[in-house]
Amino acid sequence: MTSLPIQIYFALSISLLAVGFYILSVKRNILRIILAIELMITGANMIFVIISYWIGNGIIDPLIRSIIIISMGLASLVAALAIAFVILIFDKFGTRDIRKLRKLRG
Amino acid sequence: MQIPFDLIVEFGLVVGIFISAIYVAEARPISRAVGGFIVFSVLVAILYLYLGAPYIAGSQIAIYTGAVTGLLLLAMSITKPEIPEERPDLKMFLGLVSVGVISFIVGWLVLYGYPYVPGITYEAVYGVLSRLGELGKGLEITLSNYLWNYRGIDILLQGVMVIGIATGLSHFFRREVKKE
Description:
The complex is a heterodimer of chains A (about 110) and B (about 180).
Chain A (H helix, E strand, L loop, with lengths): L5 H21 L3 H26 L6 H32 L13
Helix pairs in contact in A: 1-2, 2-3
Chain B lengths: L4 H22 L3 H21 L3 H25 L11 H23 L9 H11 L6 H9 L5 H21 L7
């Protein structure tokens, strides 16, 4: 088992989610927002790992491992799609600032 | 008292992951934020390896440190930066240092000041109530057993408090953006 109490890892995971939410709500650069999404996905994966580690008394369930690896693949898919959108947006509007995309308003 | 090596490694990993996440949020040129994300991914992979999940650690390194970071660097190279890169000032450094110090103090209190930190733990409630001595026998044991079912919430609340302080400090120390 870990030397630190398991609650600290929970707090770390929730703090990653909080930092990602902070970036999503405050920052304007699209690349930083993609980084925030990746941070939040990492925090969610970490919660899965910690819960499985806690329930299994130090052994992580293979199903959880499979789910997390699939989740990581999907996260890379999300990042690739978002970066493709960033490049398209930069070609069309010439900016990476998400608040300058006011032409998308109806 | 000798501090075990595992404890130092785990505490360093936790603090490093948190500080690198804050650095990703606040690093001014986006290239430095991507660098912080690389450090963050490597530290998370080491944490997974430490928890006994080597395949997840390998996937973390391959996907996040390799693929996602490569795509981000590609996007950075294609899209030109609009704002010229600026040197990080002293305020940014002070913000990161203060966040690290607060995290260290809270972690140290949780680890070593365990019965004396306010919180819903069995030992804390039992210790406080047994010192009063006026509530009759058995009440402290009943209350401690009842509140023990809610263990962990206090440490989570302390973590949320640390996040609140960190975001407040980062807001306080952040550079003001020029209005258009």
